[in-house]
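YM 10:42: Probable GTP-binding protein EngB sequence, as discussed on the call
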Amino acid sequence: MTETSETDRQKAEQIEAGRLLFRRPWGFVTSVAQLEQLPPDDLVEVAFAGRSNVGKSSLINAITGVKGLARTSNTPGRTQMLNYFGAPESPVALVDMPGYGYAQAPKSLVDAWTDLVFSYLRGRARLRRVFVLIDSRHGIKDNDTEVMGLLDRAAVNYQIVLTKIDKIKVPQAARMREATLEKIAKRPAAHPFVIETSSEKGIGIAEIRAEINTIGTM
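YM 10:58: structure's back
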């Protein structure tokens, strides 16, 4: 067997394992507004972060295959707490974090969300990876850079996920991928691969499921 065919076989096995993980009945577990409300950290956790309205809820719904599991809204800042999702006998829990950026809410409330998220990132022992979602139409913004800096300092592994990739043309998508990789190349906690996704078209969903399954079983 050639090296290429062996790599293809391994990838196919990972894709299938990810598919099986998300055939389970995924559901809402709990919402956390304060650190003392966090569930026991007996499961590996994978979190989703991103600017308000980047498409976090839509991506979680696509990954789990459960329409409306994570509530979506055109109003930035609707997700105000850490929202946990799980499935029976799953080794991993998904955590939807409050969007950062231009949340339409009082500053005091935004500050409270920010403190919660940052404290969670710094102190959660079983947090294995944060998927940092970037709108492929706009690229990495200052808020994203600040969050990546925090993750670097906290030594929390993170991976860039480009969302809404179907909204741009193929050459533009290629340029965005290369520009993103260039920006994260020297960041110590950044995963060296970018996943391109479209919740609407299903692009990249199998790959991110496979990645989550691999993380959960490491």
